[in-house]
Amino acid sequence: MNDFLVVELILMYVEGAVMAELAEELLGVKECDFRPGHVNNLANEFRCYTNYMTSVIHTTDSDS
């Protein structure tokens, strides 16, 4: 019997902006307009990435 379970993962990923290309390549996520902050004011810029579209966090890539 060849029954397969297919699960669609909804992913939100927050990481430094320098990881955008790698996150898209490895996780299939796109950068969002939302800009997360950090309470300790770290020097690197953070970004939010998702693999889905939402009306709350708009993906910057208009092609998807």
Architecture blueprint of SSEs:
Layout: E1 12-16, H1 20-27, E2 30-31, E3 46-50
Antiparallel strand pairs: 1-3, 2-3
* Whole-angstrom Rg: 14 Å
Task: Detail the poorly predicted runs.
Answer: none
**What helical percentage do the residues reach?**
10-25%
**Residue-averaged pLDDT, rounded?**
82
**Global structural class:** alpha+beta
- How much of the polypeptide forms β-strand, as a percent range? 15-25%
Q: What does the overall shape look like?
A: elongated
Number of helices: 1
- N-to-C order of helices and strands: EHEE
Side by side, the strands of the main sheet go: 1-3-2
List keywords for this structure.
single chain; 64 residues; alpha+beta; three-stranded antiparallel β-sheet; 1 helix; 3 strands; elongated
What does this 3D model show about the protein?
With 64 residues, this protein is of the alpha+beta class. It has a domain at 12-50. Helix content is 12%, strand content 19%. It contains 1 helix and 3 strands, in the order E-H-E-E. The chain is elongated. The termini are far apart. The relative contact order is 0.30. The mean pLDDT is 82.
